[in-house]
Design goal:
Blueprint: H1 9-12, H2 21-38, H3 51-60, H4 66-79, H5 83-87, H6 91-98, H7 104-122, H8 130-134, H9 141-151, H10 161-169, H11 178-188, H12 194-207
This protein binds iron/sulfur cluster (SF4).
Length: 240
Amino acid sequence: MPASNAKSRKDELVGPLGESVPELRKRALLTLRRLKRAYPDATIPLNYSSPLELMVATILSAQCTDARVNEVTATLFTKYRSAEDWASADIKTLEREVHPTGFFRNKAKAIKESTRDVIEKFGGEVPRTLEELTSLRGLGRKSANVLITHAFGGQGIIVDTHFRRITRRLGLTAQMDPVKIEHELMEIIPRNRQADFSLYINWHGRVTCFARKPDCAGCPARKGCPACESAGEITWDVKK
Ligand code: SF4
């Protein structure tokens, strides 16, 4: 088939409401503008002062509140300063120290293994690319994208629990799988807006579009949200 007749993936992607990629992009960017206006102080809620600290904080944040992670890391970051410090930590001691964040055995192991990989594969410096970051044991795509966008000023789609819930409510994707959501949103959101889009959608989930009872009446993105209950007519039921 000649290249001009070949359908690209972009042409094939249609949103759950039957919108084309350009239509989805227009709506998503309009939502982003509204969220940026509404939340001028939006920021990543984890405390850190280096890529290494953010890597550890991200590992600890799985299934745990950011406030609890910040409490735990406030002490930990004064004790463990380099990748070598973390990698050589006594596993039982580290398990005890990260215990308040839950899943303490897995998290202590992931911290030791990922920092060991940082030393052995990357000379003690946290790497900067998605491929390199996801080659570290204990680090998934979400954590890798958090590091790329927040520690290194790059671009990426960060699919956490808020992002999945809200992009589905907004009718930007019907996927459940985080990797599929990431790939669909990468096609919809221009590369240079992906970090911003991830940050503001995440923040929106923390302060307005709650999992159990979203504050649709006070939502800056309700105009154009197909799941908005206060609009009187719900055009998109994500539970279907
Ligand atoms: S209108 Fe409601 S469901 Fe839609 S984004 Fe806002 S809070 Fe969430």
